[in-house]
Amino acid sequence: MTTTKGLEGIVATTSSVSSIIDGVLTYRGYNIDDLAEHASFEETVYLLWYGKLPTEKELAEFKGKLSSQYAVPSEVMDMLKQYPLNDIHPMAGVRTAVSSLGLYDEKADDMSEEANLNKSISLLAKLSTIVAAFSRLRDGKEIIEPKENLSYAGNFLYMLNGNEPDEISEKAINKALVLHADHELNASTFTARVCVATLSDLYSGVTAAIGALKGPLHGGANERVMKMLSEIGEVENTESYLKDALERKEKVMGFGHRVYKDGDPRAKHLREMSKQLTGITGETKWYEMSLKLDELMTNQKGLLPNVDFYSASVYHSLGIKHDLFTPIFAMSRVSGWLAHILEQYDNNRLIRPRAEYIGPPKQEFIPIEKR
Ligand code: ACO
Question: Maximum Cα–Cα distance for the chain, whole Å?
């Protein structure tokens, strides 16, 4: 038996959802660069779930179904109100709320493809409602009802802030959602697939995936990037901050990747967005600091920024609270998790690897009174 720490380089499944080949990321064969420039998030989700880009009619129908599903069961919302909202991380709240959605869906264990697709639409819509409601409730604000004529990105900002977003903010969130939607067999997607490969239900798979995304080595990195930028404070402190961090052998959040060694293709889009949005807010220092860190890390460590690095200053510039960065990642990645869950159900086999035993050798049992 041979072991590979962290399963590096192990091909654990076949998939037709997304691919990373020679550093190029595609969803169903479409380059992420094209999707980021031209597609709406809803179009991207349709592509991930149905395997093809929608026609105008198909997209309109899909959007209609999505819009009709934003309302969260009152029981789930009542429970959410009881969470210690100001003492917990929103990712913990979102994870628990998604799990409880399964309690109030009588089709939770219906494994038909139709039921699973309907649940997917419902979960995608409700996740944005839950994130926005969590944020407003902990601030002592009223929950905002969704507006059905808005896009997924626009409606989220509306439910979060209580007013319709400007075009630039809506476009920025839309693009960020497209860029985060899927990413081959990343840690949270693998978690989702392992979970549902036992033929457990879709809510369990997504709940497990949210738990995996929460960690700082995965989706939790974007929030920590902003914490780091805030600690650096000013551009001129960047070099000394990084020197100290590297001397302490700390991981610099937002850099490095298990798969990409020549750069994450999503980062350039977010870098441009960071430049544009910090220019609008006038807080260009977040972009300049990020750029400086990027240069220093590339030159000193050969490590390049990943998707989480520039997304931090993008979300910050949009006025989003820092601990909502990872929940927004989840609102997008849930589309990828669900595409993979549907694919797993379609051609399932239990996922059960082995472990190489390195514990004590054979031992003789000593009865408790003689130990
Ligand atoms: N800062 C400093 N050093 C780093 C970093 C970093 N961000 N990333 C990797 N390294 C170093 C490691 O210390 C290690 O050095 P060593 O061989 O001298 O011990 C070497 O590079 C290899 O790193 P691993 O952690 O073994 O690489 P792995 O492929 O397991 O991890 C990961 C990839 C988790 C992304 C890692 O680069 C990291 O921790 N980055 C920071 C957290 C982060 O940004 N996560 C988001 C990833 S993207 C996403 O999930 C959405």
Answer: 77
Nearest 5°: the CA angle 6, 204, 253 is 40
Dihedral sign for Cα atoms in the order 106, 109, 113, 119:
positive
> What proportion of the chain, given as a percentage, has pLDDT over 70?
100
The pTM of the whole model exceeds 0.70? yes
CATH number at residue 54: 1.10.580.10
Instruction: Check whether residue 181 and residue 134 sit in a common domain.
Output: yes
| Same domain (yes/no): 201, 76 | yes
The reply to whether ligand 1 has any atom less than 6 angstroms from the CB of 261 is: no
Residue nearest to ligand 1 atom 23, measured at CA = 256
Ligand 1 centre distance from Cα of residue 251 (Å): 7
pLDDT of 2 over the 90 cut: no
Name, in order, each residue with C-beta under 8 angstroms of 300's C-beta and a sequence gap of 6 or more.
242, 246
Domain that holds residue 308: 221-317
| pLDDT tens, position by position, 224-242 | 999 999 999 999 999 999 9
Query: How does pLDDT run across 119-156, given as a tens digit for each residue?
Result: 999 999 999 999 999 999 999 999 999 998 999 999 99
pLDDT at 356: 93
Q: Does the CB atom of residue 258 touch ligand 1 within 6 A?
A: yes
Judgement on whether residues 195 and 239 belong to the same structural domain of the protein: no
In a domain, 353, yes or no: no
Arithmetic mean of pLDDT, 335-345? 98
Q: Is 256 in the pocket of ligand 1 (CB under 6 A)?
A: yes
DSSP calls for 59-84? HHHHHHHHHTT-PPPHHHHHHHHHS-
Centroid of ligand 1 to alpha carbon of 225 (angstroms): 14
Kindly state whether residue 159 falls inside one of the protein's structural domains.
yes
Number of domains in the chain: 2
